[in-house]
Design a protein that fits this description.
There is one protein chain. This protein is α/β, with parallel strands linked by helices. Among the domains are: about 85-215, Beta Polymerase, domain 2; about 225-315, no CATH class; about 330-385, no CATH class. The protein is built from 18 helices and eight strands. It has a six-stranded mixed sheet, sandwiched between helices. A hairpin with a 4-residue loop joins strand 6 (about 185-190) and strand 7. The longest helix has about 35 residues, at about 65-95.
Amino acid sequence: MLPPLKLVKAGLRRTTETLACELARPGSTAPDWNELEWRLASAAAAAHGVAPLLCGYSTWQNMAWRRFLANQREHVEQRHQRIAELLRRIDAEARSAGVAIVALKGSALHAIGLYAPGERPMADIDLLVRESDAERTGKLLQALGYVESFTQWKHRTFKPAAGETVTGLGEHRDTPINIELHTRIQERLPISTVDITERIYPSQPVPGLNPYPSNGALMSHLLLHAAGNICGRSLRLLHLNDISLLATRMLASDWEVLWNERSGESPWWALPPLRMVARYYDNAVPSAVLDRIEPNCPVLLRALSRRQMLTQVSCSALWLNALPGIEWSRSVSEAGRCVRNRIRPTEEAKQERADMVRTQVWLQGQSWVTLRHGRRILTWLTGPVPRMDTLYVVRAALEHF
C-alpha cells in the first residue's frame, strides 16, 4: 500500500530539490528526514539517474542510504563494461561494413572522460547514421543478436533477441542493453520540429564509431535533448549534470556552435535548460550566452524558465500535466494544435502509446494506460492523476527497503 499521495508528492519535491543541491554542491549536513523521506530520496535518485554519482559525492551518513548508493554504483560499473564491449563490437562491424556511425550522448560523455565507469548510468546506446546507411546498420545490429522492437518518429529501437527486463529499484547489471538508431537529431517543441542533425554528423566521417565534431556540437545535442525533456516533463538531474560538466570544457568558440550559421536561427530552445543548469550549478553557464539567447525565446517560456525548478519539469512532479509543453508554443496556432492533439491524438501518437504500453515495464498491468482516450480525459477533469512512471519507482523504493 502506498502512503497518502499528498505525502508522496511533498516528499518527492523536498528530496529531489535537496539531492539537486547536494550533487551540485556536495558536503552539506545530512537532512533530518523521516523513514518515508529517505525512501522517496532513493526513488528520486534512481529516477534521476544520479545514485551512483551521489555515492562518490554525498557524505550523508545514513546506513540504508549508503548501501543503496554503493549498490547502484556497483551495478552501473558492471553494466558499463557490457556497454563498452558492445560498442567495441559495433565499431569493428561498422568498420568492416564501411558504415560511419556517431555514438551519441552517454557514450560520447564517457569517451571524452567526463565520467568514470560506474558514475553515469546509460539506459541504452544511441547511434546516428545517415539515412542511406540506416538499413545496412539495422542488418549490422541484427547480426550482433538484435531485433527491431518498434519505430518512432525520432528513432528505431532495437533490443537483444535474448534477455528479460529486470524489475526493481534503479539500475541492474543484467538489464538488457537496447539500441536506438537515429537518422536525424530532432525534437518537437511541442509541435514544430527543431533539427540539428547537420551540426552533429561529422563533415568527414570515417567507417566505424565517430565522435561529435566538437564539444559545441555535443553541447547542442545535450541542450536540445534536455529541452525536449523539459517540454515533456521528463527532465532528469543527470541531464543537468551532463551539461554542467561539459560546460567546464567549453571555449567561447564552442558556444558559437549553438548558433547555426546556415539557418541563421537563434537556439531559443536552449534557454530553459541553460537557466535550469545555472540555477543549481554556480558559474556553470556564461551569462553572455544566456543574454544572447534570451531575446529570441518566446515571452511566456522566457518568463516561466526564470523560476522553474527541477521537480516541476521532471517525474518528481507526481501529477500528470494535461497540456505538457504548451508554453513552448511559438504561436497561437501552434498552441491550438497542441490542445487539439491532446483532445484528439494523431494516429502516430496512438501507435507510440501502444508501443510504450507493450515495451515499458512500468506501464505493465496499469489500467489507466489502457482506458479509452475519452475516459482518460474525463478522469483528468474530475481530479489529479498520478504519473505511472513515478508511482512505479516509488513502489520499488518502498519495497526495496
